Amino acid sequence: MAEKAETSGQREKENESKKSGPPPVAKAYLLLYNGLLTAGWFVVLYRTVLYSIDHAPSWRSDGIPTSVPGLYDDLRLPLRVFQTAACLEVVHVAVGIVRSALFTTFIQVFSRIFMLWGIVEGVAGTAYSPGLLLVAIAWSATEVIRYSFYFFALIDAIPYPIKWLRLSSLLLCLHLLRIAEPFSIKDTSLFFTQEQFLHAIHSVICLLSHWCRD
After folding, report:
1. In angstroms, rounded to a whole number, what is the distance separating the alpha carbons of residues 118 and 121?
2. C-alpha to C-alpha distance for 150 and 91, rounded to whole angstroms
3. Which DSSP helix (H) or strand (E) runs through 123?
4. Which among 130, 160, 163, 176 counts the fewest CB atoms within 10 Å?
5. Lyase as a keyword (predicted)?
6. In angstroms, rounded to a whole number, what is the distance separating the alpha carbons of residues 195 and 176?
């Protein structure tokens, strides 16, 4: 009986520790990390919206741009910094301060890193594709929501609008990327033959990552 009581007591302590979240130092670090990335992605979103407002009068009559010169010049630094900073999410899961599926996290981060450094940065002309505009909106909007959700979850005070947007942003991400990524990829002869493959893979990754992550 004493052994059973001791075992049940240990289980209760383990459950309490899981509910309490990461240790104080790790929690403070994650608050800083999620806060900085929320702010960083908001900068990307703000600059993208500002670019759209400034350049919309010069677009075609149907409102669709044929090129987005200067957009990536505005976004290059924050995109490089805050998209690459997502690599730390793999480390967070690996060391155990964030509970999530390691493989799913790795695939999600790798897909974004490949899109940024492999295509936008690596292939000449892609940065001027009109698809970049929608990609920037999709990435920044969903990441502002996601990182702010994680921030407020750490202090057990998630505002209802953030919670609602978190659940709804999946559809926004999928629909915008479904339209945008083929534009970004097809402008390069290197990736043109792989357009549908990359688009399908990234869409599946986006879907799985939003379903499987905390």
Report:
1. 6
2. 16
3. none
4. 160
5. yes
6. 16
Q: How many residues does the chain have?
A: 214
Residue corresponding to tokens 């990327």: 177
Query: Do 113 and 152 meet the contact criterion of CB atoms below 8 Å apart?
Result: no
109, 116 Cβ separation under 8 angstroms = no
CA atoms of 167 and 147, how far apart (whole Å): 13
Judge whether 82 and 35 are in contact, CB under 8 Å.
no
Residue with tokens 């999600």: 108
Q: What is the CA angle 58-64-65, rounded to 5?
A: 55
Distances (CA, A) of 128 to 88, 131, 191, 204: 29, 8, 15, 26
Most confident among 59-73, 141-155, 190-204 (mean pLDDT): 141-155
Least confident of 2-6, 29-33, 92-96, 169-173: 2-6
Choose among 82, 48, 44: nearest CA to 68: 48
Backbone angles phi, psi at 157, to 5 degrees: -145, 65
The full set of domain ranges for the chain reads 23-212
Residues of the chain with pLDDT > 90, as a percent, come to: 42
Query: In which residue are the tokens 């690459």 written?
Result: 84
Rg, the chain, Cα only: 20
Cα angle value 101/107/109 (rounded, 5°): 100
| Whether residue 86 has pLDDT greater than 70 | yes
- Residue 34: partners with Cβ closer than 8 Å, 6 or more residues away: 147, 148, 150, 151, 154
